[in-house]
Amino acid sequence: MFSPRAASxxxxxxxxxxxxxxxxxxxxxxxxxxxxxxxxxxxxAIMREAGVAVPRSIAVTSVEEAxxxxxxxxxxxxxxxxxxxxxxxxxxxxxxxxTNGFKGGVHTCYSADSAVETASxxxxxxxxxxxxxxxxxxxxxxxxxxxxxxxxEMYFAILYDRESQGPVIVASAVGGTSIxxxxxxxxxxxxxxxxxxxxxxxxxxASRVASALGFDGDSATACAxxxxxxxxxxLAKDATLLEVNPMAExxxxxxxxxxxxxxxxxxxxxxxxxxxEQRDTSQEEPREVAADAAGLNYIGLDGNIACMVNGxxxxxxxxxxxxxxxxxxxxxxxxxxxxxxEQVTAAFRILNExxxxxxxxxxxxxxxxxxxxxxxxxxxxxxxxxxxxxVIVRLQGNKVEEAKAxxxxxxxxxxxxx
Length: 418
Ligand code: ADP
Ligand code: MG
What we know:
35% of the residues lie in helices and 24% in strands. By secondary structure, the chain is of the alpha+beta class. Helix 3 (63-75) packs antiparallel against helix 4 (112-122) and helix 12 (371-384) packs parallel to helix 13 (400-410). 41% of the residues are buried. Residues 55, 83, 85, 91-94, 106, 145, 147-148, 153, 176, 245-246, 258-259 line the site of adenosine-5'-diphosphate (ADP).
């Protein structure tokens, strides 16, 4: 195993260059991609196609488009009210703020001019919400929606539940605000209806959801039909999460979904090509986008010691050992068993470009992975990238002698740790 002496050397190397400035945001803000999330306007289109009631809306990326969209939306409507909504992949937009000082990512506007002006303030801005971290997310698209006059707001979600080992529908007659707050203030207000995948959604399940949402009579029947369409869509599109907060009731008792968040199972990308093509990488952590493109398993963390390891188990153990010696890992990176020289170089580029990184620790146990391939990748990286931090390498196993010979030949390595 990796010796304590080597681990302390890494921690010290990192500490020497450490300027004490923590990275803004952090792992929670890093937008780790385990399930694809789509923008509200994209999710809404999928819901509309599935027969779910959603407001009329148009997504725009420029002020000119916004002007046309407002004209289209209000031309055959009795009202000139338009809701202007920033399209960033984060919840809590209504209460968010743009870094340019403009407040709120969701505005109800009472004239065409004010809707266009609001869209112009959002486009090109960066919205910070309680879910984005301090860095915020870029707002490149704005959705203009018909304003729905609503009687009340509800909460509706479908997700997978470990306990019942299947989908569970979560419904509450109280909605609009954060579900965590509702759960804390009044847990009984939230009803969970598990669905047996083998049986499907039974009429009585859909009715139970409608009643939990506060409907009765004909309105309950219409609501149960909307619940069924949402559930069918959830399954057909390989969704892992569908959250509608708020779902609203109109003065005539109809259900409309006012907000839409859907996440999709990455494992189903092969059969949901049309959905996965809509991925917006501008909303994701750039280091993770680059790692994904290079086929690397990478997750950004808050620390300053970057690690490049083969195998998830050894990667976890390496992060543990860094922590044990008082350091903080900057990432999880498993290059896998079949990494190529190009992938190793790509990994180094990502680690080297991370401003928070003060040292790179390579910990490879060559089994299927050949140490000489890793060594060549490191040498390529050292020759082509402007490596600004010390690299501490531990290679063991398959082709280690060849690897050491390669590194020795370059003459750039000063110390060999074992
Ligand atoms: P977020 O959850 O990101 O803050 P929402 O889409 O839930 O954004 O919008 C915030 C609030 O704005 C909603 O709770 C709802 O009250 C109101 N709202 C959103 N869309 C509409 C709409 N089309 N018509 C009327 N009110 C809306
Ligand atoms: Mg919402």
